[in-house]
What does this fold into?
Amino acid sequence: MSNDISQSLQQSVLEAADKGTALKIVGGNSKAFYGRETEGEILNIAGHSGILNYEPTELVVTARAGTTLAELEQTLADNNQMLPFEPPRFGETATVGGTVATNFSGPRRPYAGAVRDHVLGVKIINGKGEILHFGGEVMKNVAGYDLTRLMAGAMGSLGILLEVSFKVIPVPQKEITLYRNCSIDTAIQTMNDWAARPYPITASVFDGHNLYMRFGGSENAVEAARKKFGGDELNDSIDYWQRIKEHQHGFFDDDTPLWRLSVAPASKPFDLPGKTLLDWGGAQRWYKGEAAQEIIRRTAREAGGHAVMFRDGDRSQPFQPLEPVIMRLHKNLKQAMDPKNIFNPGRLYAKF
Amino acid sequence: MSAHSDHEHEFTTDRTTLVNALRKVLAADALLHQTEDLKPYECDGLSAYRQLPMVVAIPSTIEQVQAVMRICNELNVPVVARGAGTGLSGGALPHEQGVLLSLAKFKSILNIDTKNRSAVVQPGVRNLAISEAAAKHKLYYAPDPSSQIACSIGGNVAENSGGVHCLKYGLTVHNILKLKMVTIEGELITIGSEALDSAGYDLLALMTGSEGMLGVIVEVTVKLLPTPERAQVLLAAFDDVVKAGEAVGNIIAEGIIPAGLEMMDKLSIQAAEDFVHAGYPTDAEAILLCEVDGTNEEVSDHINAVREILERSGATEVRTAKDEAERANFWKGRKAAFPAVGRISPDYYCMDGTIPRKHLPEVLKGISDLSDEYGLKVANVFHAGDGNLHPLILYNANIEGELERTEEFGGKILELCVEYGGNITGEHGVGMEKINQMCVQFDSAELTQFHAVKHAFDHKGLLNPGKAVPTLHRCAEFGAMHVHHGELPFPELERF
It folds into this structure.
């Protein structure tokens, strides 16, 4: 599907800016659970869709923001390529725009990079209703400030994404998953020891019982890793990582609050009541349990990172509070990109 | 000379007041203000642009950096940060009314965390020193700009430096975790974290490549990667640059991402061969150097595949480095390409445009035509994997007007890159050098947006004024100049 509604989107932004109307930007509405709850006139970008340029030998694809991830990933797969960050969709309607806005990245992230690492260029509408183009379709670009990457994870608060260019990579020739039973301490140590050696790891998870390591690369490289790592081979490797990525694994089954703790990968196991699933080689830890918000946040901070109330909990302040100077810079940046404060106000933090 | 700032008139610094204030926070030998002491700081790696600062401050603690920034903020004095001074775009060119803030004393590697595979370093630490320190743990820092023996990590962050291994391992922005930064108000803040992301906007990405316009970096936490088990390099010769370009596309189409993929044209090959005797085939129109790395098994698989692809793509000769010594030798010619060109010409001027690789033939043809038009020779060195072109224009600064013609020629090359969907700088930064070409790359609304972002961090405009983002006024003048010569290059582009 290819459709250009940029002019009508621009018109809506100009009107909203004129009247000071808050806009609630929606793509596939698959990530509505995430961030703070906000009010606003719904601006749907899903109709702005289509793959505009795809050059497999240049490793670049450009798509309109309303293009579904399903369509984009299928097109890449047809050419034996993929998005390096293995994005979760959380629904078949998930779009390119929502993926960039949330910076949601899957199991391959610690070894291949996040959404923000692979956005090469964007076309946006800023809060003044101007259509602006930053970055491009080349790997290296240091002309001007990196407003392209700034869009990743900004939850739509700095501009409406119209088009995004991504770096893509080849699908590994072969990929296998090996697993073995171990303790959480052993799992953390193993994940990090292996990441410190030049093996072709593409994912690693500890689910509380087993350590799962995925290896991908040339045939002989994967076979060599199999010999060195040992353990058993998982038969349904593709399904397994799909379940981890989309939160369909048994760990995520109940609807108690799900916390995401992003921490230094070799951090010790958390002293929190409840259960934890380790992804990203220990750098992303999913937590479900009774611990108070302050305790969870302190735990993440002490492990070098931050905590997010990801879903099914109190949405008044899901993200880690910012230091005062950092908060000031955030407000200033918001003012610079969206002076009338019309784009998803309050979705990220209450103050802007 | 185009090295003047748009903002100079805005600042009137009283030297005595400034020196007296800085004396209170810096030791006598950390504050230079006599002309002969200022001289070594008058330029960076782009020596065509020179300007003495009013003073040079060389703090040795973060507290002193904060104190200097508070003084400059209070007195309305411009601040230009400088690392090793190896930058190629004049980003560290001093401001005549300002303080040149040297981070040269911040030279310590503070911590290497082998478990989390990261290192905390001060901004003045040399790029290569990080990998040397990490080597005993079989870890290294991936970005490797050609100047890595000398350039500092603080400057690498400010410029988002690349290197010959970018296609596989990314740029500086992909390889850092956390920064400590001092704002123009003198506040010390932490950006990023020890985790793979952090709360709020991605200020780490915004700071990377911001050319000293948003804050002064005083500490960097970098990612360390495992040293590959093995690296192997192939050298392929071609009788046609177009065939060499197609070979690069063919390698990638087979699903192989080489660690390094470099192209050199005939003039570069000959200059390098004369200089370092790397054994390059001097009759070739182009050579490709293709390095694959990883585990033993992966390298064996890929080296065979790449050799086959190169032969199929019409290479007249393909050599595999038989040992580490030969591998080093193959690379030696490429790494010495710039100084090698420096031997065959009194001066050379290095450009840094980026293009979608498929347009390589047209862009090389365009450069060749411009070369004839200006009567100046060009040697091309190309990071072929990621489309980053380094044409080296050969000139003689002692010939009246030749530098000016060279600059104009260089500007035209960058405009050609933009015309073919590329950009004006892949890794060297805009600085002072490419400020006019920013007017070709971006329209007035985009430039205004950049200025608004700058204002969010530095509302008085004291950090590195006049660099990186041109004023609209400057662009209007630049545009007018082109109209005056009756040669508006790309009428289809928006202009103002």
User: Anything to note?
Assistant: Chain B touches chain A through 96 residues (CB under 8 Å). The domain at 109-226 of chain B is CATH 3.30.465.10 (Uridine Diphospho-n-acetylenolpyruvylglucosamine Reductase; domain 3). The CA atoms of residues 14 and 97 of chain B lie 9 Å apart.
